[in-house]
Amino acid sequence: MESEYLMGGIMASLLGFVLLYRITAQKKATTSRGVARYEKLESSENGIDQAEKDKKPDVIIVGAGVAGSALAYTLGKDGRNVHVIERDLTEPDRIVGELLQPGGYLKLIELGLQDCVEDIDAQQVFGYALYKGGRSTKLSYPLQSFDSNVSGRSFHNGRFIQRMREKAASLTNVRLEQGTVTSLLEANGTIKGVQYKTKTGQELAASAPLTIVCDGCFSNLRRSLCNAKVEIPSCFVALILENCELPYQNHGHVILADPSPILFYRISSSEIRCLVDIPVSQKLPSISNGEMANYLKSIVAPQPVASTINTLAGALYKVFSASHDPAQDEMRRACFDYLSLGGVFSSGPIALLSGLNPQPLSLVMHFFAVAVYGVGRLVFTLPSAKRIWMGARMISVASRIIFPIIRVEGAQHMFFPKVMAKYCRPLAL
């Protein structure tokens, strides 16, 4: 009997081990399948599956405007696989970005994109003509030390954009796709790719080690990346004048009108663009009820007729705009007279405006030189307490305009750009 109990215990133990083994193996298999399903689900929720990982590009670029197309071409030339997703690949119809400064043209040469301004009827630009109160002055770009082909270029923005896109798409490792990016895909605080809708409405996802958003100042994606505030100081009303001539060939024409500048420049051999700037502080006239047409005829047109610059970056826009502040109006007159002096007084600011002198400190120096020039003209010609006070007010106006720009750009970048360049190294992708 004892032997039977012993044999039964051994058999039961063996069966128990077999059963335990099977249960453990089944549990492991179930766990593995669960993990696999979880990983697949997590990957699917992020819009990134294994097949997509196997063929993903090095870089995703959202937007195929000037920045996106130029970046795609440059990275493609460097051997990167680039996927560009653009909401609309048809030719844009925009009124901004139509005048490329000489510094911008030099950048095109540096990137190998200079042929993008060819075969689009682009016009060479050699400077500006500036008008105010019946007086005019011509400001030429300081191009003496450059090749004859280096100048500004003005053109139809859409034609230029299309040439940039064609140039980028000519590389086999750059893929341009029409689609609307709906969201950025994020995992553990890192952007892994994008979710987008194709031209046919299909929802897809794309992943890459690096995603670059280049979809303009009104980007819906920017708010998920930063808290940058977009300031809109004014609106442009644009006209195209056909078969007209401007007083100075191959020059942009700027009228320092009231309340803000009016700009003329040629965008083709037969077309001149007129841009009328309307400050946001002023109610935008309605087009549908004829208010806009009446505004252009009664307010704008008499000023170009009476005295037929783009503003010097954002700073001089505020100087050139008419103001109820006498000190700012005096600053405006001083700026015009300063530029009219010629020599370094005009070539310096125009080199900044054209992009040929990228040193921010030069902007600050010329800006305050205008203020000091205006104060000197006020105080030393006929000194009085009123004129001294007005001079102090002019310095205050200049400070209110330029110091916020220094704060935004960064004082170290403005005053020590070479030091910043030393420590800012390109990041490998």
Class of secondary structure makeup = alpha/beta
* Spatial separation of the terminal alpha carbons: 79 Å
Determine the number of helices (DSSP H or I, runs of at least 4 residues). 14
Task: Give the beta-strand count.
Answer: 15
- Measured as a percent range, the helix fraction is 40-55%
Shape, principal axes of CA atoms: globular
The share of residues in extended strands comes to: 15-25%
Q: Which stretches are poorly predicted, pLDDT < 50 over at least 5 residues?
A: 1-6, 27-53, 307-313, 419-429
Biggest sheet, spatial arrangement of strands = 10-9-8-2-1-11
Report the sheet with the most strands, covering strand number, pairing sense and barrel closure: 6 strands, mixed
Mean pLDDT: 80
The helix/strand series, from N terminus to C terminus, equals HHEHEEHEEEEHEEEEEEEEHHHHHHHHH
Radius of gyration over alpha carbons? 31 Å
Description:
With 429 residues, the protein is of the alpha/beta class. It has 14 helices and 15 strands. Strands 10-9-8-2-1-11 form a six-stranded mixed β-sheet. Strands 6-5-13-14-15-12 form a six-stranded mixed β-sheet, covered by helices on one side. Strand 8 and strand 9 form a beta hairpin. The longest helix has 44 residues. The chain is globular and about 70 Å long.
Layout: helices, strands, pairs:
Layout: H1 2-45, H2 50-55, E1 59-62, H3 66-77, E2 82-86, E3 99-100, H4 102-111, E4 123-125, E5 127-132, E6 135-140, E7 152-154, H5 157-169, E8 174-187, E9 190-198, E10 203-207, E11 210-213, E12 234-242, E13 252-255, E14 262-266, E15 271-279, H6 291-300, H7 302-306, H8 313-320, H9 326-340, H10 344-354, H11 360-381, H12 385-409, H13 411-415, H14 417-423
Parallel strand pairs: 1-2, 1-11, 2-8, 5-13
Antiparallel strand pairs: 3-7, 4-7, 5-6, 8-9, 9-10, 12-15, 13-14, 14-15
